[in-house]
Amino acid sequence: MIKIAQVGLGTLYLTKDKNWYLKFSEKEYQVHDKEHIIALLPLFENDYEEFKQALEANNISSEVLARLPLQSAMKYPFNHQRTTWMDNALDWIEKSGMAGEMRDWALTIKRDTMPQAVMHRFRRVFDLSKGWDIPENP
Q1: CB 39 within 8 A of CB 22
Q2: Residues sharing a CB contact under 8 Å with residue 33, sequence separation 6 or more, in sequence order
Q3: In degrees rounded to 5, what are phi and psi of residue 7?
Q4: What is the pTM of this model?
Q5: Can you name the residues that pair with 27 across neighbouring β-strands?
Q6: Side-chain half-sphere of 83: how many Cα atoms within 13 Å?
Q7: 44-66 pLDDT, tens per residue?
Q8: Closest to 73 measured CA to CA, from 108, 126, 35, 121
């Protein structure tokens, strides 16, 4: 079992069989589907660079990392209007370099679902035009 990061009051770790788990007290949850996405949000309180260093220090391959639903967790605050987590998710999107591959998804998000400061940053991170969700022919 390899500890990767603190996630709020829990711990994110990888097992020998390359499965991702969150452990809270005595309970463990395998992280592989939408059921546990919300539990990953506190991961974004950590600095992305520290997370990346932990992956590199433990020789975690991109294939194994792909089993962790990071993009789904990064999208969650915007898809469910969780404003508390939006800035943190944007930090990770920006620092991880995933903005390009997530841009099509970003185009589907409505501007009025986020605070103005977050909306401006969202637009910058995803390189969106000023009126990305305004209909051309109202």
Answers
A1: yes
A2: 69
A3: -130, 90
A4: 0.88
A5: 24
A6: 9
A7: 999 999 999 999 999 999 999 99
A8: 35
